[in-house]
Amino acid sequence: MSWTPLNHRIHHLPLILAGPILRRTERKAVTVWLALKAPRQVELKVYSTEGGTGEIVDRPLLQGTGSTVQLGKYLHVVAVTAIPIDSNCLTSGQIYAYDIEFADSRESRSGIPGLENERENLISCLWPATPDLSPLGAQTISYFDHQLPTFALSPDDLNYLRIVHGSCRKPHGGGRDALPILDSSIEQFAGMANSRPHQLFLTGDQIYGDDVADPMLWALTDTGDVLLGWKENLPLIDDTQIQDNLCTSISRNQKKRNKICEVRGNSTESQFQQQAEVESIYKQPVDLKPGSRSDIARDFGGFTAMLVNQPDKAKSHLFSLGEYYAMYLLVWSSVLWCDSFPKGKDICENVKQAKVWDREAFELESFARDLWRVRRAIANIPTYTICDDHDVSDDWYLNREWCYRVLGKPLGRRVVQNALLAYAVFQAWGNTPQQFDRGKVGDKLLTTAAKWSESAGTNVAVWSDAALYLGIPGIDIETGLPKFKLDEDVLIFDRDGEGVNEVLDWHFTVRSFKHEVIVLDTRTWRGYPTESAIDPPMLLTHKAFEEQIQKPLLETDLLNKTGEFEIEATLVIVPTNLVGLWIIDAVQKWDVEHGRVFNS
């Protein structure tokens, strides 16, 4: 069917909007992530299977329960972890299956009926009851007759270890989505524990917050608003004084400072900016149409994706929390899609825009056709992720100048926080589920996210707490700019908040019996030079190097000595370049010397 507003379809959609996604998987713990349209108690069970047939053997080995967190009227998310029953542990060389059951005896506040003593399982909640409401019809989540997803732990013999890597997945990027190839690889070796892929690492730009197709934004705005049940008020506020402070704070190098401020000063004012000079205004996502957001992102958000004459790179930039939430749901699952977008001539104001719309719609429809295979693949392999810039916006935290110009603007700060909150829920929770255990910093963040949504985006106190949990620096009340503090010879974010000193870590380490993978966060632990705000930062400060690299290596040495592990290989994942190419480094050095820091 052609694209229909979500509020006309939501009650006919299955319970599971996205997932299951198999996340952190170890011998004594297995975590599965899901997004549902209604609240549920979720129970995860992990079973052994018989040889290569996949036939389930006897009772579960691991079991765990969890409750969904309400992020919106129709958006309830959970990452549930199963732990051993008795003393059972998982072993390599074995294929395991998992099932999920849902229970709720109450009427949900979303208006969707509860279960009334009935228990639903994974298979009954994956697909629409009416096939016509799915763009693809009912597809399987399994490679076996039992119809359950499966996985195998990494082998003890490193010669059989199969790790899959992916990044930079832009739905309208041209060409075909490569991630369905993983589905084919798992399918081919599904019954062979040592031959099927064992781990998937997605190392940045799982979504694009800046470079978004016009039809995609059109769908995301509708989807996000309906799922949340409220519309966010986005601040398009005059910040002339902050801009003056910014130009004063940029650099002690007068040549570089003048160049940057000249570019900013010569920018053509948009209609919204002219209006904001008279009064502060707020706009809802639906008011900021697809294809028209580049000037707004630049003038009111301080974003840089569109600079150097590239307005198309941010013409449909995500702004709202609902849009960031919805983007994850639409790139990981086909449930919320329809089979076609409206024609450009019915949406756009002119022929040129309509042609762009139709071209992008064609690419998106091609992308969506294989989403059921993507969904099946990431349900059947332990999946780990780490952020890079496009998960937020191009150049995210690139240098101190970017931090000043974006975090110093109300819209810029709001968008960064929206993106990071979405990243925490949709990506980080599954990487490090222990951070989200009851009473931990992740659990506190989820509580603030639920309260923020419950208040329809008006509870300023919980939003401020969320910023601190996410590691977003405070604002200097005199300048309106983000605060930094000195750490040895570099500047780092000043994250000291009143009563809140806990910050989520994005970096993590995954260990199997014979190998480990250390995943670095090179975006939020940067050390910025004290002299020039446009100079490149240290990707990891001295403290970050100790915390993210030295500490896990020391832990590994201790674990090897106890005999719990026999790790022979260490892999390190760095979202940014570890070794540069001289020609690129030379070009970037020239750009910095001439104050052109956002060229690429």
List the SSEs and their pairings.
Layout: E1 16-26, E2 29-36, E3 41-50, E4 55-67, E5 69-72, E6 75-84, E7 95-103, E8 120-121, E9 150-152, E10 163-166, H1 180-188, E11 199-202, H2 214-228, E12 234-236, H3 240-249, H4 254-265, H5 271-276, E13 281-283, H6 294-299, H7 321-332, H8 351-369, H9 371-379, E14 383-385, H10 400-407, H11 410-431, H12 441-454, H13 460-469, E15 484-487, E16 490-493, E17 508-511, E18 515-519, H14 542-562, E19 569-573, H15 582-593
Parallel strand pairs: 10-11, 11-14, 18-19
Antiparallel strand pairs: 1-2, 2-6, 3-4, 3-7, 4-6, 5-6, 7-8, 7-9, 12-13, 15-16, 17-18
Helix pairs in contact: 1-9, 2-7, 7-11, 11-12, 12-13
Could you explain the architecture of this structure?
Strands 1, 2, 3, 4, 5, 6, 7, 8 and 9 form a nine-stranded antiparallel β-sheet that branches. Strands 10-11-14 form a three-stranded parallel β-sheet. It has helices spanning 180-188, 214-228, 240-249, 254-265, 271-276, 294-299, 321-332, 351-369, 371-379, 400-407, 410-431, 441-454, 460-469, 542-562, 582-593, and strands spanning 16-26, 29-36, 41-50, 55-67, 69-72, 75-84, 95-103, 120-121, 150-152, 163-166, 199-202, 234-236, 281-283, 383-385, 484-487, 490-493, 508-511, 515-519, 569-573. It has 15 helices and 19 strands. A hairpin with a 3-residue loop joins strand 17 and strand 18. The protein is globular. The protein has one domain (6-106, 119-223, 365-594). With 600 residues, the chain is α+β, with helices and mostly antiparallel strands. The longest helix has 22 residues, at 410-431. Helices cover 31% and strands 18% of the residues. Mean pLDDT is 89; it is low at 107-117, 130-137, 251-260, 262-269 and 272-279. Helix 1 (180-188) crosses helix 9 (371-379).
